Amino acid sequence: MPRSAHRHKPEATPYVDLTRSEWSALRDKTPLPLTAEEVEQLRGLGDVIDLDEVRDIYLPLSRLLNLYVGATDGLRSALNTFLGEQGAQSGTPFVIGVAGSVAGGKSTVARLLQALLSRWPEHPRVERVTTDGFLLPTKELQARGLMSRKGFPESYDRRALTRFVADIKAGKDEVTAPIYSHLIYDIVPDEKLVVRRPDILIVEGLNVLQPALPGKDGRTRVGLADYFDFSVYIDASPEDVERWYLNRFKKLRQTAFQDPNSYFRKYTQVSEEEAIDYARTQWRTINKPNLIENIAPTRGRATLIIRKGSDHKVQRLSLRKL
Questions:
Q1: In 3-state terms, what secondary structure has residue 66?
Q2: pLDDT digits 0-9 by tens, 136-177
Q3: Each residue of 44-65: pLDDT tens digit?
Q4: Is 262 domain-assigned?
Q5: Those residues with Cβ within 8 angstroms of residue 301's Cβ, 6 or more apart along the chain or in another chain
Q6: What are phi and psi of 295, to 5 degrees?
Q7: Structural domain that includes position 224
Q8: What does 141-162 look like in DSSP terms, one character per residue?
Q9: CATH number where 60 lies
Q10: Does residue 149 belong to any structural domain of this protein?
């Protein structure tokens, strides 16, 4: 057989790859429920999202997720019928995971999805939780020598995080989570986030798609991502994310870091060059290694991969086939 016969064999993939325009066309006639002012309030520092981006990218996604929620409810009802449990509890929360790098825009995506999904009459109660609340407190990180690994999988109370989502999924009336403050760079003492039986829960974090580690007995355990009904990974080149990270640091230095209570206020008291050197070191010794070693390898576990270009605009999307 000629060698050329093998050159154009399509690569097997579990995803359907879509351009921005192909994806945008899938919103059908779904109305845009957000104003420019609301989008501005939801936008993260350094993100350039606007109404066109919401209309082209996140409106179709909200429509898709609404279809997923309805289909999941139907499948659950069918399973209950099969098991002879017609009277079983209905309305199990639909859980969405949003993953990606620091400064990649995942927080903005999670906030947008919360706002858009709550407008659908089928599921008005949409809650969002970030995994930051499950970081180990600073004292514990220091005791374990993990301050330089903050954001890596081992810096979280993974058992508590998984238990929190499992309790939500089980339909508990009230579930609480710790609250993290970026101002003090630590868990806030004696404060809790209370979640009460949402229709949809969005879980946002760096490592939410990590598989469960095997137990000491070698057996595979249930991991956080096992409770997800749908997951999104925000993808971008490490070089672009580094630039976004540094630009965001500059803006924070002029705003939030000015607060006398800010953990990072000390970087407003030095030259901009010194402050940026610190931020660049943080990126190259902590955030980039975490992205390469832990976050990016989980991309292939997502239901939807959203790929951003250097301008923060979404260029392509890959949707996992059923």
A1: helix
A2: 999 999 999 999 999 999 999 999 999 999 999 999 999 999
A3: 656 678 888 989 999 999 999 9
A4: yes
A5: 209, 211, 225, 231, 233
A6: -85, -55
A7: 14-129+199-320
A8: HHHTT-GGGTTSGGGB-HHHHH
A9: 3.40.50.300
A10: no
